[in-house]
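Hey, quick one: can you model this chain's 3D structure?
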Amino acid sequence: MSNAKPRVAIVGGGIVGASIAYHLARRGAAVTLIDRGDPAEGATGRSFAWINAWSGTTEPYARLRHHALGEYRRLQQELGGALPLKWTGTLICRHDRAETERRAGIQAAAGYDVRLLDAAEIARLEPRLKKPPALAAFAAGEGAAEPVETTRLLLRAARDAGAGVRCPETASALVVDGERVAGVRLSSGAVLEADVVVVASGTGSADLTAPLGINLPVEASPAIIAHYRCDAPLVNTVLIHPALEIRQVSTNLVAGAAEYIDATGENGPEAVAQRMLLDIRNGFTDTASVTLDRVAVGVRPIPEDGLPIVGFAPQVKGLYLSVMHSGVTLAPAVGRFAAVEILDGTAVRLLDICRPERFAV
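Sure thing. Here's the predicted structure for all 361 residues.
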C-alpha cells in the first residue's frame, strides 16, 4: 500500500473478521469493522468450534490447518492467556481402518503429530465409552475454542488497538471507483470510505461481490449444534465418532454436532438432537441424567471445492476476500496473513491454495 496507514473496512464481525480487524489494527491500520448483528447470531456462534488439522484432506490444506494451530498458541500469548481454549486432543474413530490410516498418512506427510490407537488405548483415553473401536487416530495438539467468547475478546482487543467496531451496521453494497474499491455503502445510504475492503461475511459474501461480476461459489451448509447437561464430564477429548461429534464445554455441559436434514418432523433439529441424546446414552456409561439443554442450526459457508477463499480479488483492486469453513480453526492464521498481504503487499505462500483466482471467469 502506498498509504502508510491505509483505511480498511471489514464487512463481517464473526471470528474471521474479528481476527483480521485485530491483526490490522495492531499494526497501525485505520480499521472499521461492521456487522449487521452480534457474533452470537451468525455461523460463529453456532459452531462446534473444533480446532483441527484433521479436516485438511490434502497435504497443502493440512499444512495450512496445522499452521493455524500454532497461530492459536501465538495469539494466546499475545492476549495474555485470555482466549477460552481447551487443548484436549481429538480422538477420531469415524472412519474404517483403511480410511483412518490413509487420512493419518496425509497428516503425517504434512508434519502433523497423529498417532493410531488400538481399543485398549482408546479405552484409557475415553473410559466412559462403552464400545471402543478397534482403531482410531489421536491428534494430541487439537482442541476447541469457545467461539463467541473468542470473537468478543478479539473485537475488544481490536478496539483497544484503535479499530472502530460498528454493530449493528449493515453493508448494502460495495462502492467502486473505476477499477478500485472505494468503500462500503451502508443501509442508511452513507458510504464508509476505504482504501481496502475486506469481505468476511460468510454466506452473505457472494451477495456483496456478485454485482461486481465476482463469482463466489459458496454453499450455505447447515449443521445442528446441540448442548446437553450432565452431572459430570462425559468425554476427555474432542470425540469424532460414527454416531456423533461431541466435546466437553464445561464440567456439566457437552456440545454435539450432527448434519442437518430438514426443518420439521422426525428430521427436524429437535428430533435429531433427541436421537443424538439416545446415541450418548447408548454409547457412554452412567448417562441416565444427561438431558438436552438447547439445540440450534448453524449455517456454514463452504466454498464449492471445500477450500477457503482468501486473497485480493483479481477483478477489483483493493478488495480482499476471506470466506471459509472452518473459520474457527483458521481465524488466527488468516487474520495475521491478511494483515501481511494487505499492509506489506507480500503474498503468504501457505494461502496459495486459497486464492480467489480459481473462480475467476
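One thing worth noting: The CA atoms of residues 239 and 267 lie 23 Å apart.
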